[in-house]
Structure formats: C-alpha cells, structure tokens
Design goal:
The protein has helices at residues 49-62, 76-88, 104-112, 136-151, 166-179, 196-209, 223-233, 250-257, 269-286, and strands at 15-16, 19-20, 35-40, 65-70, 93-97, 117-120, 130-133, 154-161, 183-191, 215-218, 242-246, 263-267, 308-310, 313-316, 337-338. The chain is of the alpha/beta class. The strands form three sheets. It has a seven-stranded parallel sheet, with helices on both faces. Strands 9-8-10-11-12-14 form a six-stranded mixed sheet, sandwiched between helices. A two-stranded antiparallel ribbon has the order 1-2. The chain is elongated and about 65 Å long. The model is unreliable at 1-30 (pLDDT under 50).
C-alpha cells in the first residue's frame, strides 16, 4: 500500500476547557538561551513523531535548546535512569511523560530540587508542577460516543489497547462507562502492547473467534494498523464493520483513507509540547512564578501553576486524513533540538 502524501501542513489550536491557550512570545530584549529536556520512553516510536515535531517547532520559535533523552523503545526503566541523569544536570526545565508510575519518584525528585517539571500525555498520580494533555477518561467517553454516532447504540464490540499504560487504562474506563448505558456488548479484548505485530495478531485472534462482531475499537497508536491489517488478511471488506481508533500513525492513516477505519481520535500532541515549552519559558525568562496571586506566593505556600491543562481530541476521518500525515508537518528547530 502506498502512503498518501498530504499537500499542506496544518496547525492545531490547543484548548484548555473552552479557553484558547495564548502563545507567549519570546522576550524581545533577548534573554539568555535556556536548556530544557524532554525525558520519556518511546522516543523512537512512530507515536512520538508529532510530539517531537512540536518540540522542534518550539525550540525554533522560543530560541531555546531542547534535548530529548530516554528510551527509543517503551522501556520505562531506561527512561527513569535518564531522568535521574537529567536532574543531576540541574537544567532550566524538564518535560516528561508518565505512562506508568515508575516515573513518579523522579518527577518528585525534580520538584524537590526546584527544577520546573511538566508532565504531558499521561498522568500516573504524580503531576509535577503541571499536567498537560488529554483527560484520558473523557477521551474514552468521546471514543464511545463516536462509536455510537457511527454505528448506533447496540452491537457486539472488540477492543484492543496497551493495558497497563495509565492513559490507555483510563481511556478504556471512559469507554466502558458510556457503553454501560447502551446495548453495546464488549465480547472480547486483548493487549496490543503498543506494538504493531502484537496488535495485528491480537486483532486477528479476536476477529477469528468472534465472526459476528459489528465494531472494533483500538485505544493506542498501534491498534489501528493492527485492526485494519487483520481485516485485510482475513478478507474483510472496508466498511464491513465500524472501526474507531486512536492517534495518527501513518500506516493507520492509509487505512482511514481506504475506508477500513471510520474515525481516529488524536490529541493535539504538537500543540501540547509547544504549550509546555512556552510555560517553561515564561517561568525562566518572564518571572511567571511571581505573578501576584498573593503579596508573597512562596511565603503563602501558593503555586501559580495551573493544576491541569486539558488539550482535547480532534477526530480524523476520510474528509481530513490527508492533513495528518507526518510528512505534512515539516522540519523545525534543527539547530536547537537534539535527540
């Protein structure tokens, strides 16, 4: 299957509830260039491409140095060790993703060291100074509602996802919450391990065992390609069942274009990373932590950080899929980004 190339890049607008997040301009007086780290597993995975694009864009825009460090695979132990190494360097700020609770001790250690640290994408109990990303339970609710909008309020459903990852478990929780008030029946689910080959095999096993299903939901980035690939291998026609997935790997986008997948819900991921960098810039260059919430924020034990900033999903369909291919996003910040 040939990948379809998008003709133009698009920029997503990040939302906090119903409030548009303002972009903070770099100091026109020319502040000293700051160095921030993004520390996480999955750096070499397709899922992380648009996160890294957002960091590159921000590094160029704010004239700051951003270094990505962690694990190319999903090994959280490697990412935890990297976080310890980065904390020892006392950088100007850290961005991290906590797909599991193993990252929590490092997040707390960074806070205690006085290093601004922002958690993105997935929260596992320790939020750093701020969490930016999806309300993942609500994202699961949105997934369920998208399924209902496309296929009605009854049917037999299969689900795969990367079980044990905090954001995916939360999405599954939200999905089941909404479907509990309908006549949808989840007749099977399997772990995809956020791996393309595993997702493909899991989908084939479930479809072979449940020939009368009417819909399939995939909750992590590898699932869409796995479900649609299984449909192809089993000789199922596009549109023969309703498929709703998550995220935006290029291989999955081809299947949306070809009609195997009707919708995919994806975070405004690049915008999430840009917001994180803009806030770190505001802290380190523009005295954000001394905004006069009180006469003395530190003495009053007051933090001016927002607690959470929810970015919200966008929905990819055949009508807009061409704009979501990673080749459409461009290259940014080559001189300022290292990873």
């Amino acid at each position: 299957m040939n990948f379809k190339k998008a003709l133009a890049a698009t920029m997503a607008v990040a939302m906090v509830g119903a409030i548009t997040v303002p972009v903070m301009a770099a100091d026109e007086g020319g502040s000293e260039q700051k160095t921030y780290y993004y520390v996480a597993p999955g750096l070499g995975q397709p899922y992380s491409i648009d996160m890294i694009k957002g960091l590159q864009f921000a590094a160029e825009k704010y004239d700051c140095k951003i270094i990505a460090q962690g694990a190319n695979d999903w090994n959280s132990d490697t990412a935890c060790a990297s976080l310890e190494q980065v904390i020892a360097k006392n950088p100007d700020g850290i961005i991290t993703a906590a797909w599991d609770a193993a990252m929590n001790p490092g997040i707390q250690k960074a806070k205690e060291a006085g290093i601004p640290i922002i958690v993105v994408e997935a929260e596992s109990g320790e939020l750093g100074d701020l969490y930016i990303g999806l309300d993942n339970v609500d994202a699961g609710r949105e997934t369920a509602q998208t399924l209902i909008d496309l296929a009605g309020d009854s049917g037999k459903l299969l689900v795969i996802g990367n079980w044990g990852s905090t954001n995916i478990d939360q999405k599954f929780e939200g999905l089941k919450e909404v479907l509990a008030d309908t006549s949808w029946e989840i007749v099977g689910d399997q772990d995809s391990e956020a791996d393309a080959a595993t997702a493909l095999q899991a989908a084939k096993d479930l479809l072979s065992s449940n020939p009368d299903v009417t819909a399939f939901v995939g909750l992590d980035s590898a699932c869409g390609g796995g479900i649609a690939g299984a449909m192809e291998e089993l000789g199922m026609e596009p549109g023969s069942m309703t498929v709703v997935c998550a995220d935006r790997e290029d291989a999955m986008l081809d299947y949306i274009a070809d009609g195997y997948i009707q919708a995919s819900l994806t975070n405004r991921t690049a915008a999430m990373m840009d917001i994180a960098v803009s806030l770190l810039e505001n802290v380190t260059n523009h005295d954000f932590l001394n905004v006069p919430v009180t006469g003395d924020n530190a003495a009053s034990d007051i933090s001016v950080w927002p607690l959470k900033m929810y970015t919200g999903n966008v929905v990819i369909t055949q009508d807009n899929v061409e704009n979501f291919y990673h080749d459409a996003l461009g290259e940014y910040g080559a001189d300022n980004y290292e990873g």
